[in-house]
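Hey,
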Amino acid sequence: MRAMQERVWQRRGEQYLLIKSPPASGKSRALMFLTLDKLNNQGVSKAIIAVPERSIGGSFADEPLSKYGFHWDWTVAPQWNLCNAPGVDEPKVAKSKVKAVGEFLAGTDRVLVCTHATFRFAVEELGVEAFDGCLLAIDEFHHVSAGEGNILGRQLSAFLARDKVHMVAMTGSYFRGDAVPVLAPEDEGKFETVTYTYYEQLNGYDHLKALDIGYFFYTGRYIDSLGKVLDPALKTIVHIPNVNARESLKDKTREASEIMGVLGEWVSQDPVTGFHNVRRADGKMLKVADLVDDDVAKRDRVVGALKDPAHRNDRDHVDVIIALGMAKEGFDWIWCEHALTIGYRSSLTEIIQIIGRATRDAPGKPVARFTNFIAEPAADEALVTDAINDTLKAIAASLLMEQVLAPRFNFTPKDSGAQDGYDYGEGGYQDGKTNVGFNAATGQLHLEIKGLVEPRSDEAKRICREDLNEVITAFVQDKQAVERGIFDSETVPEELTQVRMGKIVKDRYPELAAEDQEAVRQQAIAALAMVQEAKKHMAESTVLEGVSETGGGFALLEGVRKYSLEVKELDIDLIDRINPFEAAYSILSKTMDSGLLKQVEAAIAGKRINIPLDEARDLARRALRFKAERGRLPDIGSADAWEKRMAEGIAVLQRHEAQKANG
């Protein structure tokens, strides 16, 4: 077993288990080990594994585990892998499979794999009591939410209230793009949590040692600039934009065809796999899988070829995959070197999942890459506003990824003493008063901070130990906090670190005592500040890249360690005064030129101006006279106060008209 799988195996006796582990870390295999033990040793009668889309069902194909020394082999009878039914992602087909679930429950076979949709329909029709004695395993658990409109979330709450099933929840990103909690606090408290971090995973890889994360801008049609970021020599998944996105060309079939044109010359289509054969400029033939095609039969042929276990370890089976809404979470292609996403994704969860497609370890794959290819802001105010929102998403995603890739932190008050399991010698620092240690087994850093409030309750300690990433995620998803932190020079850092973060912690954990809420807030800010300060200390730019001097992971991760060892003593007052978004502005400024930054500055400034409407109209009239005299409109960034005031009047008037148009 891998390290993560061993960690899960040690908790195999738990009735409710939540596994938070990155994409490609081996969750599916861990579930196989766990399920077989529950079926054979723990009195569980049957196991149902639910996945969000049928392409993920291939992760639970038969495995001869006894060949590796395990007690049993993993087998799923063909009729009970409902993910193999053509079109099973469609609601009508998923609903038709409810009868099969009922037959499975009444029969003697013990393992069934289905989609979330099929499972939801089965529970609605059969009732929660029909599943008594079963193990319910929910893959990609972040699809669940505590919101009233989430059917699966309501059903799982009912199962927990009835308390007659075992449940395993697995996810690579235990947070949602809409910031709604996955589980209500009272339900989450019933789960034993196993957390395995990106840091632990990537540090333990044999081959993959570097990750590039980049945001690149284009003008005009993205197809015309795609060749700058799409390298035909790399195994790549290209995620095209949704047809409703502004980056879309509004014809997904033509987009897929034009992307193939960027790769080379189309030659033929394989009748068996459905893959397209495209000849590169150097003569090499590429195999391209098109998951965009609306023809269900053709798409099913391609999906079947991609899932074929006979080719799982065949690097030459396919070269490029073009997808829309597929090949994201749980999609298992270990050879993927580049996840290229065109257009913004509003969900940070989706970004994490897409990055996970490229972070599987494989021979001959020392570097993985995630690229978000984005339209540049235009001069039109509405487009600039959209671009600002998009840029904020990119910044938030970058900040989140920095945190996800960093080691976990164990903060204690100054002079609290060394901690068991941490190295304070070569791997840390100890001078009798201050302790900085590193735990190689867990990837945790121990740091002492002056004035730190310690968590008192077991739940608060668990949150600080396991859930700081979720707290930080909610913080960087807070658009108002991000916007003010980056663009508003008058924002007092404490307003972000104390007020905004404090509100997030209180809203997320209302059951905690005030002192424990403050402890969680301080530890979340300390963790985020450590990553940002380490990044600045290492002079990192927008891309996280490079192999460390020791060969033990990524430069950012090593930077956190090196920086923390030089700190020796931190003060909580200092941490609260660090603006977590200071470093983020470089992401924006290094990607855009001064002209585009000026547009962004104007749009942001326009939102902050407070001028009465009548005065704004008068200023706009004067601005027209200014234009007639000088051939240009007033500049909101002008050093001349009167010119700036006229430009502000125009901005207020434009904002007023836009609000009227939107009702």
